[in-house]
Amino acid sequence: MVGRILDAGGQVLAEHGYEGASTSRIAAAAGISPGSLYQYFPHKDAIVLSVLERYSDTLVSSVTARMTGQFEQPAPVIVRSTLATLLDGLDVAPPFLRAAVEHGPRLDDGRALRAFEERIGELVLAYLTTQRPGLRPDTPLDTAVWMLVRTVEHLTVRYLLDRPPIPRERFLTELTHLALNYLRPTS
Q: pLDDT, tens digit, for every residue of 119-133?
């Protein structure tokens, strides 16, 4: 039943966004009464937060699966394929993505977002540790990870919400160059 409610919550967020989501709409989409919904979730925000946490877990799993099998690949290959996986995972209905980035942090003081960033950061740190000899020596890895994760996250979200006239492949190429050049040693 919880899975049905979360599936319905995701569907309603994708169609109506946070403001248009209501427990009545979510219950109807789940095929249950609002009273039944309240047996599992006390209010809309609890459902939205659970939907967003499940989405975050799925996204981290996708990025993890992509990265872990490619550590031996050249940096441009692994960076681009990882960024493509992240872009694909974030490319959901704009009302859903907007709810995730605008309302999700408010619902739990940003804990879920920070947890997502930390989990992605751990992957990036693991990769950068294997690449340390080819990176700029003046930047501590923890600083580089923090900067990269948040830069990529912000640009990817803005790209998907703003829909600028930049083809997807061009966006991936530019974002890959940005990430790689940030880490390259200066001559």
A: 889 988 988 888 878
